Amino acid sequence: MSVVPYKDKQGSKKEQVATMFDNISGNYDFLNHFLSLGIDIAWRKKAIRQLKDLQPKQILDIATGTGDFAIEALALKPDKVTGVDISEGMLAVGRQKMKKKGLDQKIELLSGDSEALQFEDNKFDAVIVSFGVRNFEHLEKGLADMYRVLKPGGRTVILEFSKPKSFPFKQLYHFYFKWILPKIGNTISKDQAAYTYLPESVRAFPDGQNFLEILEKVGFKNTQCKPLTLGISSIYIGTK
Ligand SMILES: C[S@@+](CC[C@H](N)C(=O)[O-])C[C@H]1O[C@@H](n2cnc3c(N)ncnc32)[C@H](O)[C@@H]1O
């Protein structure tokens, strides 16, 4: 059974995830950096560096949210970054941010679902996702559609939480993630479920080798996993 944010409410995982991100969109950027002590910024930069040699011109950022990964991708000097998301609330915060930073000509944020992308086959040089795939309702379907819109020879780079394995870090991290993070996150975001869903969805997510097997199943080649910060997050790479 898939993990959903609001266990006592009706609605598919996709509907619940969109509602949850609409609810927390105003506090999302602050909480992201605060709860990760800013480490998420370094993770995004490292993930984007995995595309440096490819010099992608057309980049698709799936589950773009408020657009931070799309902004980071500008370091690659692409012609355009297109971001898609199912949460209008997150997109609205993102669009305001792009306008304020003068980036709205380079980065376009569109409503769009990873499982039914509105783009033709073989369109993008790179397809990127940060902290998005864990929230997909149908993981394989989302990854397969990412593969479809990628050009042959193109690359996907996926950044996602994973589970640290070594003692005593595993235990410390587990304590923080289960007991501290939900209390701070739920209080500041004023959503009683969002930051309880976060550790639950990470626990249920097939990380490491399991995720590489799914990438390969939908067609990606030369897959790699690069764990970050003792395995709290991982970068996954695949080629079409
Ligand atoms: C944790 S946020 C990550 C946002 C951004 N990528 C970042 O790194 O800050 C996850 C995002 O995934 C989006 N999302 C979840 N399922 C999606 C789907 N099927 N298609 C597109 N976006 C989706 C949510 O609406 C949310 O904005």
UniProtKB/TrEMBL annotation:
GO molecular function: 2-methoxy-6-polyprenyl-1,4-benzoquinol methyltransferase activity; demethylmenaquinone methyltransferase activity
Listed EC numbers: 2.1.1.163
GO biological process assignments: methylation
Pfam families: Ubie_methyltran (PF01209)
Tree of life domain: Bacteria
Keywords assigned: Menaquinone biosynthesis, Methyltransferase, S-adenosyl-L-methionine, Transferase
SUPFAM superfamilies: S-adenosyl-L-methionine-dependent methyltransferases
Record-linked InterPro entries: SAM-dependent_MTases_sf (IPR029063), UbiE/COQ5_MeTrFase (IPR004033), UbiE/COQ5_MeTrFase_CS (IPR023576)
Reaction equations catalysed: a 2-demethylmenaquinol + S-adenosyl-L-methionine = a menaquinol + S-adenosyl-L-homocysteine + H(+)
Pathway recorded for this protein: Quinol/quinone metabolism; menaquinone biosynthesis; menaquinol from 1,4-dihydroxy-2-naphthoate: step 2/2
Residues the entry annotates as binding S-adenosyl-L-methionine: 66, 85, 113-114, 130
NCBIfam families per record: MenG_MenH_UbiE, PRK00216.1-5
Function, in words: Methyltransferase required for the conversion of demethylmenaquinol (DMKH2) to menaquinol (MKH2).
Family under the similarity heading: Belongs to the class I-like SAM-binding methyltransferase superfamily. MenG/UbiE family.
Name listed for the protein in its UniProt record: Demethylmenaquinone methyltransferase
